[in-house]
Design goal:
The complex is a heterodimer of chains A (about 200) and B (about 270).
Chain A (H helix, E strand, L loop, with lengths): L11 E6 L4 H9 L9 E5 L9 H6 L6 E2 L12 E3 L5 E5 L3 E5 L11 H12 L3 E5 L8 H9 L3 E5 L8 H9 L4 E3 L1 H14 L2
Parallel strand pairs in A: 1-2, 1-7, 2-4, 3-4, 7-8, 8-9
Antiparallel strand pairs in A: 5-6
Chain B lengths: L5 H15 L8 H14 L4 H10 L3 H9 L10 H18 L3 E6 L5 H12 L6 E7 L2 H9 L1 E3 L3 H11 L9 E4 L2 E4 L7 E5 L11 E6 L8 H14 E9 L14 E5 L4 E4 L3
Parallel strand pairs in B: 1-2, 1-7, 2-6, 7-8
Antiparallel strand pairs in B: 3-5, 4-5, 8-10, 9-10
The chains are: A alpha/beta (about 200), B alpha/beta (about 270).
């Protein structure tokens, strides 16, 4: 009776989003099961020169306090992380974060492609990648990295997206395992959580 | 999908170290990998092609270094950091020394050096400060010395300056030449630019303030430890160290020889020799 093909070997969930993704992210974070067993790593496009406020806004309804990791900070299960403004966020082998101020990618810093690709490299098939609403194609290549390394790919149902360019770009570039509305993504994460109990 | 094995990355860093004496062996892997992939793409090379070119054409290595090192920066990046510099850190240094020395370690194209000099000038103390700005990459040091930047960057730089609440008019610090902004050379009168390798280089002076923002993020933990030891040795007791707002010393061996002066802006003070 499994709706989703899930197991308890996953190591991380990574979420990318841009224009129109804020509500979805808030909904996911507010309905996350208590003690969710995996780290959630988020790369969301944000105002480059506003360093404060975003984490606070996301944390208001979140079950878990959202934090912006420092360079070299270990990735811990159960934590929710957000790429800081004006830095690219990667995960390194050894399971810790790395930041960089390299050139913008897809006109973005943080760039979703960079976060997703580095997670795919480190977590391989033990990764779930979720791409939400957005107005450019950042994240599509990252989703391809996740798929090519055996990870699970999810996009927000384009019909539900405020702007569907981003999930559609991923859909045309690589194989997507699940196309889901945000409430289904929440169900998915709850099912996943049960596998670890 | 373009990718590269760690073993190939190690071959490249080993070759550069053995042949040219630049040590990238302890660079952070994720960004080092992206830099090398970027070079392969830009120069349309395979890994073997790159290794061959680095072996056969010594002139290529400068071009390679120029692309490998990250030289993306802006003036008054993190305006709140610069406000704390002006309102707290520099005044604290001046309580004890009328004249003092600053080291910009890994100065890249010099935007932070210009920012510092503008700030010091507006504080009326530019004459009293000696600034040494160093970088590994000689090409980028030439750019820093020229103090010439694309005009298109000035909008962002000026926005930062305004948020820093500079007391002058940002446009007065440069003149337009074609598509460039050429900064007033008087700003740099007490600055000396030098090639210096943070990884292999020696301690060369003592400072009251060291700025090294968003440089050590490209190093792994081992190298961060080594470089922090060098900064520690290069600072006078009670001297200040500023790193990037999302860097931290807490995973470094020498962390306990510093105290946090401002956690938001990552400004530290050396309290133990």
């Amino acid at each position: 009776m499994n709706k989703f093909n899930l197991n308890n070997s996953y190591k991380a969930v990574v979420i990318g989003g841009s224009a129109g993704s804020f509500q979805g992210v808030v909904k996911i974070l507010s309905q996350l099961p208590k003690g969710f067993p995996l780290p959630i790593i988020m790369c969301l496009h944000r105002l480059k020169h506003v360093r404060n406020g975003f984490v606070e806004a996301l944390s208001i309804k979140s079950v878990v306090q959202v934090t912006e990791p420092h360079d070299k900070e270990p990735v811990k299960k159960g934590n929710v992380y957000l790429a800081p403004s004006n830095y690219h966020l990667s995960v390194e082998l050894g399971n810790y974060f790395a930041l960089s101020t390299e050139e913008m990618v897809n006109n973005s810093r943080p760039a979703i492609d960079i976060t997703l690709a580095s997670c795919a490299y480190v977590y391989k098939d033990k990764l779930i990648g979720i791409l939400l609403s957005g107005a450019n194609k950042d994240g599509a290549m990252g989703m391809k990295h996740i798929h090519d390394r055996g990870g699970t790919t999810i996009i927000q149902d384009p019909s539900e997206c405020m702007i569907d360019t981003m999930p559609r770009a991923a859909l045309s570039l690589t194989e997507i395992d699940y196309i889901m509305r945000v409430d289904q993504i929440v169900e998915f994460l709850k099912e996943l959580d049960k596998k670890y109990r | 999908m373009l990718d590269i094995d760690i073993s190939d990355l190690k071959k490249i860093s080993e070759l550069i170290y053995q042949k040219y004496g630049y040590d990238f062996r302890n660079y952070a892997m994720s960004s080092f990998k992206r830099r090398v992939l970027r070079i392969l793409e830009l120069k349309k090379l395979t890994v073997d092609g790159l290794l061959k070119k680095l072996t056969d054409s010594p002139n290529f290595v400068n071009e390679f270094l120029d692309e490998l090192t990250v030289n993306v920066t802006e003036m008054f990046r993190d305006p709140s950091f610069w406000r704390i510099m002006r309102e707290e850190v520099i005044p604290a240094i001046m309580l004890n020394h009328k004249q003092f020395k600053i080291w910009h370690a890994g100065c890249s194209s010099g935007e932070e050096v210009i920012s510092m000099c503008i700030m010091l000038k507006e504080m009326g103390i530019l004459h009293d400060v000696t600034v040494i700005a160093t970088d590994l990459d000689v090409n980028i040091l030439e750019k820093a010395k020229a103090a010439t930047y694309p005009l298109k960057n000035m909008e962002l730089n000026e926005k930062n300056y305004i948020r820093f609440q500079g007391t002058g008019n940002f446009k007065d610090y440069y003149r337009e030449e074609g598509s460039n902004a050429v900064f007033n050379k008087d700003l740099l009168m007490n600055v000396s630019f030098r090639r210096h390798d943070l990884v292999l280089g020696d301690i060369f002076n003592k400072f009251d303030l060291v700025l090294c923002r968003n440089v050590m993020i490209y190093f792994n933990q081992t190298l961060q430890n080594d470089v922090l030891k060098k900064f520690h040795e290069s600072l006078f007791k009670y001297g200040y160290l500023a790193i990037g707002s999302k860097e931290s010393l807490i995973w470094c061996d020498y962390a306990n020889r510093f105290i946090v002066v401002n956690n938001e802006e990552k400004i530290y003070k050396k309290i133990k020799d």
